[in-house]
Design goal:
The strands form two sheets. Strands 2-1-10-9-8-6-7-5-4-3 form a ten-stranded mixed sheet, with no helix packed on it. Strands 11, 12, 13, 14, 15, 16, 17 and 18 form an eight-stranded mixed sheet that branches. The protein folds into two domains: 3-141, no CATH class; 151-261, Sandwich (Immunoglobulin-like). By secondary structure, the protein is an all-beta fold. Helix content is 0%, strand content 60%. The protein is elongated and about 85 Å long. β12 and β13 form a beta hairpin.
């Protein structure tokens, strides 16, 4: 659960704040902090229980990582480019067309894939080149970043060839460090009497941490020649989505497999 506060106030004449003061707490209001995978940007979104909504962006110059320190000469994000840091505070239907400002990152702790564990920052923003300023502070702590999904896949060295339908049945196991649905797919390749026989296969299994989970699939030959008993090459790729970070994770294996005649 996110902890912390966001507060800001503006001078008389500041368009965004209207010269008012605002304070929000993660205990009562919804505050969310997200970062870019390259660690160059943090976005803070605030939804107040009173209906207020605000967005704050703090960005290093394009291509750089956002670290502790003071960033002078900020211009409006995302139009700051590689020569200047980026800053933007807007919301409640108001935003700057152009802006200047600066911000200081006194603490930032990154997790995987742009996850932000902690952020302490202060910023000052001037709209349209005006003297009136909006000044804000962000103090946020998120739970420790979840572990990244670790995925494994293996291919059994034994399979079956069906004389009835010409398909090859292959098997294997998948492993994971958190519950996830895993898609396993690949290609079975065999050479018989100088004829190349190939066929794709796919399977879906629910993986849970602990003992390896078995998968099994049938490969259908793409040509007219069926799979036969003997040796084949099996390539396998396992794919799953890490729900904590919304990224795709893959694992692969390749094995020489001996096909025996399928029973029945």
């Amino acid at each position: 659960m996110t902890e912390g506060t966001v507060s800001f106030s503006g001078d008389q004449g500041d368009y965004i704040s209207g010269g008012g003061s605002y304070a929000y707490s993660a205990g009562t209001d919804r505050i969310q902090v997200t970062g870019s995978a390259a660690h160059g940007l943090v976005d803070i979104s605030i939804s107040g229980t009173n209906g207020d909504w605000w967005s704050v962006s703090l960005a290093a110059p394009q291509g750089q990582e956002l670290r502790t320190g003071t960033y002078e000469g900020a211009t409006r994000y995302p139009f700051n480019g590689s020569d200047a840091p980026g800053l933007s505070h807007d919301g409640n239907g108001r935003g700057c067309n152009t802006l200047t400002g600066a911000f200081t990152i006194s603490k930032i702790t990154w997790g995987p894939h742009g996850y932000v564990e902690a952020l302490d920052a202060a910023y000052e923003q001037h709209c349209e080149g005006g003297e009136s300023a909006l000044r804000g502070q962000v103090h946020i702590k998120n739970p420790t970043a979840p572990a990244e999904l670790s995925l494994g896949v293996g291919v059994s060295v034994a399979g079956q060839a069906s004389a009835l339908n010409g398909k090859a049945t292959v098997h294997g196991k998948v492993t994971c460090n958190k519950p996830v649905q895993v898609n396993v797919g690949g290609l079975v390749t065999q050479v018989k009497r100088n004829v190349l026989i190939r066929g794709p296969y796919s399977a879906t299994v629910k993986c849970v941490p602990g003992a390896p989970i078995a998968w099994s699939a049938q490969a259908d030959p793409t040509g007219t020649t069926p799979f036969q008993t003997g040796d084949v090459e099996v390539k396998a790729t396992a794919t799953a989505v890490d729900s904590d970070y919304q990224v795709s994770v893959t694992a692969s294996d390749i094995a020489a497999v001996h096909l025996t005649r399928a029973k029945g």
